[in-house]
């Protein structure tokens, strides 16, 4: 046992606070004569630290949902923060402009169209005013939020997506294709929708035999990975509708696990050991027999929610019910998953929102921002890398995914792939004007993969317009004929009434 580990276990003050820090910050190198020397691992993220904002910058008096579901209950983008809240007689979530801090009035409008509790929400990456929600009422709804936020409660979604037979616990937008949305329900089915037409174009209903805990798209949206209650992680090609790799007993414990894709195609998982210790692991999809790295953390029973930044390769682990956020750097050198630090606070977290990179303040060297849900409050937490210079730190901010979609939905369903379109944050990010989400109920895709055909294609728009004109003319003729018929009837009745009145007059005389 090394000296600092012995010191830590003995409770005496030493070099580091815990074996995690020892594991993170040192590695063994062979020196001359086979002697061992310690070298501190170089990383620009070694000194990342977190700080909660002041009370007046929090969102207060929010009744955060108490529903028993292991989602994050919060979604954030550069304009809004959305929080699932308790609601009587259905399901609702708040949508607040980021600047709307302080006490939130009980009468503040909500998004409240679901008839059962809302379980998951996700902002569209290509339109900061569009959000999807999944609910216990078995539906997925897509909403358009006004540019300046809600002034009245929103009850009418842009589109309702119906296809699940049990509650919908997961919604996730495609990272690069416009209007492509994935949903997963407790019917163990995954459905991929074209929101632009309101249609379910891919239905993966025979791949999972138990509850799906989470679903993650890869960087270009060509694959998904899932974690399930049967302890399997599956890597799926959704358009071919086939499982291309899977791992049984990824984590042997019975409690829920999570699996996410990393930028290099590897998979990061969190779960529990047979002895109920929380674990994290790194896997290569091409060889799932053994993990690249597997580390045990502690014996807490909260599910670890991973939040990943592909630009810096940092993973933040937030345990539900924990009062801390641990963060790790993923690299190509052993031990591959390097502990960086822990942000700790007094209050446990009910959920967590994670700001996209384009919503951060680059002038303050902010590399992540969380929105921590308490029982009655949402508290932003800012992660920064201390730097002396005021200049733009290009090593901290490589080009990041922008709000423009690289593909249209039709192109993706036809088989095309594209990486995210990147933007520079050198001069900060200024949100542009978002176009309204328009849903054309008829399926106007010209070509779809044969395996995914669900209905016949309609004729070209011009023919459709001609047909519509013809129908209108026919209806007009019908109305005119009916009007003429009624007028004729009235004229005949008038004549009949006049004759009857004359007869009455004769009899009276």
UniProtKB/TrEMBL annotation:
Sections of the chain in a coiled coil: 476-503
Cited Gene3D superfamilies: YVTN repeat-like/Quinoprotein amine dehydrogenase
Entry keyword annotation includes Lyase: no
WD repeats: 111-153, 161-203, 205-246
Keyword line: Coiled coil, Repeat, WD repeat
Source taxon at top rank: Eukaryota
Domain DUF1899: 38-102
Family: Belongs to the WD repeat coronin family.
Record PANTHER family: CORONIN, CORONIN-1C
Official protein name in the record: Coronin
Organism whose genome encodes this protein: Gallus gallus
């Amino acid at each position: 046992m090394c000296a600092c580990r012995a010191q830590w276990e003995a409770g005496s003050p030493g070099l580091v606070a815990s074996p995690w820090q020892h594991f993170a910050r040192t590695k063994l190198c062979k020196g001359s004569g086979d002697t061992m020397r310690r070298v501190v691992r170089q990383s620009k993220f070694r000194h990342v630290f977190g700080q909660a904002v002041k009370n007046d910058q929090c969102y207060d008096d929010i009744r955060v949902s108490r529903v028993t579901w292991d989602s994050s209950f919060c979604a954030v983008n550069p304009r809004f923060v959305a929080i699932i809240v308790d609601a009587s007689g259905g399901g609702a979530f708040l949508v607040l402009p980021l600047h709307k801090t302080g006490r939130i009035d009980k009468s503040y409008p909500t998004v409240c169209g679901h008839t059962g509790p809302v379980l998951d929400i996700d902002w569209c990456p290509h339109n900061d005013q569009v959000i999807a929600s999944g609910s216990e009422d078995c539906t997925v709804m897509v909403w358009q939020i006004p540019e300046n936020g809600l002034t009245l409660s929103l009850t009418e979604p842009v589109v309702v997506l119906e296809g699940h037979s049990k509650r919908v616990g997961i919604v996730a937008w495609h990272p690069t294709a416009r209007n492509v949305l994935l949903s997963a329900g407790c019917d163990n089915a995954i459905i991929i929708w074209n929101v632009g037409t309101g249609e379910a174009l891919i239905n993966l209903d025979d791949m999972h035999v138990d509850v799906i805990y989470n679903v993650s798209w890869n960087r270009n949206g060509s694959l998904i990975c899932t974690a399930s209650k049967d302890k399997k992680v599956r890597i799926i090609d959704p358009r071919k509708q086939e499982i291309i790799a899977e791992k049984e007993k990824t984590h042997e414990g019975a409690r829920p696990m999570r699996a996410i894709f990393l930028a290099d195609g590897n998979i990061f998982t969190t779960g529990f050991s047979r002895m109920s210790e929380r674990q994290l692991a790194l896997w290569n999809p091409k060889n799932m027999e053994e993990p690249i790295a597997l580390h045990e953390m502690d014996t807490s029973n909260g599910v670890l929610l991973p939040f990943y930044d592909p630009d810096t390769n940092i993973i933040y682990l937030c345990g539900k019910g924990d009062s801390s956020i641990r963060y790790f750097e993923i690299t190509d050198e052993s031990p591959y998953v390097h502990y960086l630090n822990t942000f700790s606070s007094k209050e446990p977290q009910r959920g967590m929102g994670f700001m996209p990179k384009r919503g951060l303040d680059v002038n303050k060297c902010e590399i992540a921002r969380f929105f921590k849900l308490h029982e009655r409050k949402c508290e932003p937490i800012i992660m920064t890398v201390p730097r002396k210079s005021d200049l733009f730190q290009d090593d901290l901010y490589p080009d990041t995914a922008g709000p423009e979609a690289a593909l249209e939905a039709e192109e993706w369903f036809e088989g095309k792939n594209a990486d995210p379109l990147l933007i520079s944050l050198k001069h900060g990010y200024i949100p542009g004007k978002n176009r309204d989400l328009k849903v054309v109920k008829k399926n106007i895709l010209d070509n779809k993969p044969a395996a995914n055909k669900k209905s016949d294609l309609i004729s070209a728009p011009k023919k459709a317009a001609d047909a519509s004109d013809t129908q209108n003319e026919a209806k007009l003729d019908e109305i005119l004929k009916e009007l003429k018929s009624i007028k004729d009837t009235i004229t005949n009745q008038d004549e009949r009434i006049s004759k009857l009145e004359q007869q009455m007059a004769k009899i009276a005389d």
